[in-house]
Amino acid sequence: MTTLMDGPISGVSEQTGNGNDAVVEQSTPKQTTSSTGAATTNGLQPEGQKPRLLSSLYNFLVIVSFFLVGFAAFRNTLTWHLQRFWGASGDFWQSQWDKFIDFTGENPATLWIHSTTLFTMFVYWFFGGIYTLFDLTCRPSCIRRYKMQPGTNEPVDRTRLIRVIAQVVINQTVVGIPMAIFMYQAMRFRGLNDLRELPTFHWVLAELSFCIFIEEIGFYYAHRLLHNRYIYKFIHKQHHEWTAPIAITAIYCHPIEHVFSNLVPPFLGIFLLGSHVAVAWLWFTLVILSTLNAHSGYHLPFFPSPEAHDFHHLKFNQCFGVLGVLDRLHGTDTLFRNTKAYARHIMMLSFVPAREAFPEPAKKPF
């Protein structure tokens, strides 16, 4: 198993330009020996200086530990107030859910298959449509200040856009509906929850945290596998036609990729926990919003940073994951961390564009 995914994939590189991509072969880096006796790769850096797995894992565990301590410290304040909001006004959310179930009926197949398909399509096209209006009209003009690759898709090519829309709809229906049926059968096998009873707020938080963890693992390794040189051109190459992506290209991909990279990783956590259908909808909404933002081409203020995935589309063999944890552990973000894009890879808490807050260094005159 390690032969496909152990270490950065350097045998293939993406040639960019005006939306046209090509796959070119790179020679295997040669190792030399520095004056200190340490092995180097093309003279760039000693092998011993590369990020080590144990060191990165230690840093990750430290971060997780601080997070858990912080969460424990605030669980009786912030989460207490949120719990009250969750159950305020005479159990408001439960009463609204009861009304919804009274309207739709208590057939779990209807909720897991039909309602899930319609709901996820609505979320995707409602928010993706807003981004698409930005790309088609370049209005409001101030939005262009937040482009990560200025000058690209300003405006977006309509012929390419129509091709994207057609493929996305196929993935959501021809592929998505059979997968929704499969997921429902899997949940039946796992054991369905009582449809009428919503889980507690704290349990929802715990389930979402677990789903985030599982998706990071599933998506990272599925994505790395799709970049394997022997299968890339047959499947994943379609998604990488857009070296400067727009939001709705998030699931513009080969149907096989859509199943194993876009649908299965988010579903795994839901399946393992046997989650309530309402939690599944909440989780799928977060996943859709995240991937739309990651492909949008805009680093908007107060939004999670999409710099890493935009860099992946630009450079091809960097930043395969969602959170970046496994990229750090496997060293598949080393190039990214040596660019200005990495400095910009934060949530901007002001209206100053990231490219202005962290400008590219001035080019030296010849």
Condensed summary:
The chain has about 375 residues and is mostly helical. The protein is built from 13 helices and four strands.
Task: Give an account of the 3D structure.
The chain is mainly alpha-helical. The chain is built from 13 helices and 4 strands. It has helices at residues 2-5, 53-74, 78-86, 88-104, 108-137, 158-190, 201-226, 255-273, 277-295, 307-315, 325-330, 340-343, 354-357, and strands at 12-15, 22-25, 31-33, 39-41. The strands form 2 sheets. A two-stranded antiparallel ribbon has the order 1-2. Strands 3-4 form a two-stranded antiparallel sheet. β3 (31-33) and β4 (39-41) form a beta hairpin. α3 packs across α4 (88-104). It starts with a helix and ends in a 9-residue tail after the last helix. Mean pLDDT is 84; it is low at 1-51.
How do the helices and strands line up, and which of them pair or pack?
Elements lengths: L1 H4 L6 E4 L6 E4 L5 E3 L5 E3 L11 H22 L3 H9 L1 H17 L3 H30 L20 H33 L10 H26 L28 H19 L3 H19 L11 H9 L9 H6 L9 H4 L10 H4 L9
Antiparallel strand pairs: 1-2, 3-4
Helix pairs in contact: 3-4, 5-6, 5-9, 6-8, 7-8
